[in-house]
C-alpha cells in the first residue's frame, strides 16, 4: 500500500468510525482501569518520571520556541514527595500511594511464594460519596482517604478498597459482579507483549523469509480481546510488527498481514497468522516527520514566534494544586490514568446573588472508540478503546511549554502508580491558560441616528485546561474550555501528524 494511501485510509476510517462519549454527570461507581500505551516499550508510561532513551527524544528545532524547564526535576520530586491532599477529590499523593502499595503487598491475599504474582492495573482515589464532598468546606477535615485498586493475582481479578489511614483492605472478586472480561493491561503487560513474538522460532523465520532483518523489527500490542472459542479463559492480545529500517516513522512500514496472538499471562505465542506475503512493505523514503528531516526535502514556512501579552499576569489561580479559580468560575481539576483529566464541582458565580451555582459535578472522557471496520484477518480486531484500553492519562506525555500551551500557562503534574504500585510523576501533563484568539466576546455600537455615540466591545477570553494523549500514532488534544457566560466547551482535536507527511 502506498504510504499516502495508507494515511488517507486510516484517516477516512477514523473520521467515519470515531465515537466519543463524554459523561458529564455523577458517576459514583466509576471504576477506571489502568491501561497502557500501544507503544509501550520505548518511551511511554514506565515507572520512571522521564525517559532519556534516544527513541523518545526528538528535541526542538529552530523556529519553534524553547523554554527552560521550570521547576527543576529535583524540586518537582521534593514537592510531590511532601504533598498532602487539600480537597476531598485530590488524587492520591506519593505518600498515600506508597502506603496503599505496602498494605496490598503485605495482605495475606497476596502473600504468595512469588511476590511478583500481584499486578495492580489501577490505583486511584476512591472518591468519597457526593454528599460528603458537597458537605465539605475548606478548613474541614477531609473525608476518609481511600484507594480503589484493581489487582490481578493467581488468575483472578480483584477489586480492592484500601483505607489509607487504617490500612483496612476490602476485596471483591470481579467475576462476582461481571461475568467476563479482564482489566486493562499494565505497562509491564504491554512491554512483554512487544517482545513475546521473538521467543518464537516460527515468528523469526516468517520475518526473515520476508527479507526483513530481525534487528529492524518493532512490534506493538494492538488489540486485546477474545478471538475464538479455543481461546476461552485466556488473556490475549494481537501483536503487529513493523520495520524500523531507515525511518523513525515505523507506523508507515507495517509488515502487513502478519499477526501474532500472545497470551499476556504466560507470554506464549499462541498463533501466528501470515497472510500478507504478497503485500510489500512501504518504502522508508520521506517518511520521517521530524522537522530536521523534512527541511532537507521541502520548504516548511514557519511563522514568526507568537505570544499573547498579559502585562498583569494571568487572572486564574490554582490553590492546593487542583482547585482552579478564574473570572466567575471555580472547579477542581485532576489528572487520571484512564480519563486523562477529571473536572469536578464546576461552579459559576451568579452575578445577581454572588452565589456559586453548580454547573457540573463531574466530567471526564468516558471512552474514545476507534473501530476500523475492516473485516480482513489482519484488521478486523483493530477496534481500539483509546481511553479504556490504553489510558488517556497514561499516554499523556509532558506538554511542550510555549508550543503546546502559551506563555503564562500553569502546568499540573500527574502522580500515577506503576504495575507494582510504585508511584511516579508524569510532569507537565495538564496545562491551564487564558486563551485569546482576537475574537470579540460582547459588543454593541449605537447608530448615529440615536445620537448616543455608544461603541462598546469586550474581548473574548476563555480559560482552557489542556492535555495531549499520544496513543501510538494518534495525538489527541483534549481542551476543557470555560467561558464567562457559564458555558463549558469540550474540544477533542486529533492529529495524525506522523502520517501526514
Ligand atoms: C540524557 O541524554 C543527554 C543527551 O544525550 C545526556 O547528556 C544526559 O546525561 C542524559 N541523562 C540521563 C539522566 O541519562
Ligand atoms: C528470534 O530473534 C531474536 C532477535 O534476533 C533473538 O533474540 C531470539 O533469540 C530469536 N528467537 C529464537 C527462538 O530463535
Automatic annotation (TrEMBL):
EC top class named in words: oxidoreductase
Keyword Disulfide bond among UniProt keywords: yes
Chain segments carrying region Disordered: 38-89
Cofactor(s) needed: Cu cation
Residues annotated as signal peptide: 1-25
GO biological process assignments: amine metabolic process
Amino acid composition bias (Low complexity), ranges on this chain: 38-56
Record's protein name: Amine oxidase
Family label: Belongs to the copper/topaquinone oxidase family.
Domain Copper amine oxidase N3-terminal: 183-282
Amino acid at each position: 500500500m502506498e504510504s499516502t494511501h495508507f494515511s488517507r485510509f486510516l484517516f477516512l476510517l477514523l473520521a467515519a468510525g470515531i465515537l466519543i462519549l463524554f459523561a458529564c454527570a455523577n458517576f459514583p461507581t466509576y471504576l477506571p482501569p489502568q491501561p497502557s500505551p500501544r507503544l509501550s516499550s520505548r518511551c511511554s508510561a514506565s515507572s520512571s518520571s522521564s525517559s532519556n532513551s534516544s527513541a523518545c527524544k526528538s528535541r526542538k528545532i529552530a523556529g519553534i520556541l524553547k523554554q527552560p524547564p521550570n521547576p527543576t526535576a529535583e524540586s518537582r520530586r521534593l514537592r510531590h514527595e511532601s504533598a498532602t491532599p487539600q480537597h476531598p477529590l485530590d488524587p492520591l499523593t506519593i505518600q498515600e500511594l506508597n502506603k496503599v502499595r505496602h498494605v496490598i503487598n503485605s495482605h495475606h491475599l497476596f502473600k504468595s511464594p512469588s511476590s511478583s504474582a500481584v499486578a495492580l492495573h489501577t490505583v486511584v482515589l476512591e472518591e468519597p460519596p457526593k454528599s460528603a464532598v458537597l458537605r465539605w468546606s475548606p478548613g474541614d477535615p477531609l473525608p476518609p482517604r481511600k484507594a480503589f485498586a484493581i489487582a490481578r493475582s493467581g488468575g483472578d481479578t480483584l477489586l480492592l478498597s484500601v483505607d489509607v489511614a487504617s490500612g483496612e483492605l476490602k476485596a471483591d472478586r470481579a467475576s462476582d459482579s461481571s461475568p467476563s472480561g479482564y482489566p486493562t493491561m499494565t505497562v509491564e503487560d504491554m512491554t512483554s507483549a512487544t517482545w513475546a513474538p521473538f521467543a518464537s522460532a516460527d515468528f523469526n523465520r516468517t520475518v526473515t523469509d520476508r527479507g526483513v532483518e530481525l534487528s529492524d523489527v518493532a512490534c506493538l500490542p494492538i488489540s486485546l480481546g477474545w478471538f475464538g472459542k479455543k481461546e476461552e479463559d485466556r488473556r490475549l492480545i494481537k501483536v503487529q510488527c513493523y520495520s524500523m529500517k531507515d525511518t523513525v516513522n515505523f507506523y508507515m512500514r507495517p509488515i502487513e498481514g502478519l499477526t501474532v496472538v500472545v497470551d499476556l499471562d504466560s507470554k506464549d505465542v499462541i498463533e501466528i497468522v501470515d497472510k500478507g506475503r504478497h503485500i510489500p512493505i512501504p518504502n522508508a523514503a520521506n517518511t520521517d516527520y521530524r522537522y530536521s528531516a523534512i527541511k532537507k526535502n521541502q520548504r516548511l514556512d514557519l511563522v514568526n514566534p507568537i505570544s499573547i501579552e498579559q502585562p498583569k499576569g494571568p487572572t486564574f489561580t490554582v490553590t492546593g494544586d487542583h482547585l482552579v479559580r478564574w473570572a466567575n468560575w471555580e472547579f477542581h481539576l485532576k489528572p487520571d490514568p484512564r480519563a486523562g483529566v477529571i473536572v469536578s464541582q464546576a461552579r459559576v458565580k451568579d452575578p445577581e446573588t454572588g452565589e456559586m451555582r453548580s454547573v457540573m459535578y463531574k466530567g471526564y472522557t468516558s471512552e474514545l472508540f476507534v473501530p476500523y471496520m475492516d473485516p480482513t484477518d489482519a484488521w478486523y480486531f483493530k477496534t481500539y478503546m483509546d481511553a479504556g484500553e490504553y489510558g488517556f492519562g497514561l499516554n499523556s506525555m509532558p506538554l511542550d511549554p510555549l508550543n503546546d500551551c502559551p506563555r503564562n500557562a500553569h502546568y499540573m503534574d500527574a502522580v500515577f502508580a506503576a504495575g507494582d504500585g510504585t508511584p511516579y510523576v508524569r510532569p507537565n501533563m495538564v496545562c491551564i491558560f487564558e486563551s485569546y484568539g482576537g475574537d470579540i466576546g460582547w459588543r454593541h455600537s449605537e447608530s448615529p441616528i440615536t445620537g448616543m455615540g455608544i461603541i462598546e466591545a469586550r474581548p473574548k477570553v476563555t480559560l482552557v485546561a489542556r492535555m495531549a494523549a499520544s496513543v501510538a500514532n494518534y495525538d489527541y488534544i483534549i481542551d476543557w474550555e470555560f467561558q464567562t457566560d457559564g458555558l463549558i466547551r469540550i474540544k477533542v482535536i486529533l492529529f495524525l501528524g506522523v502520517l501526514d507527511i
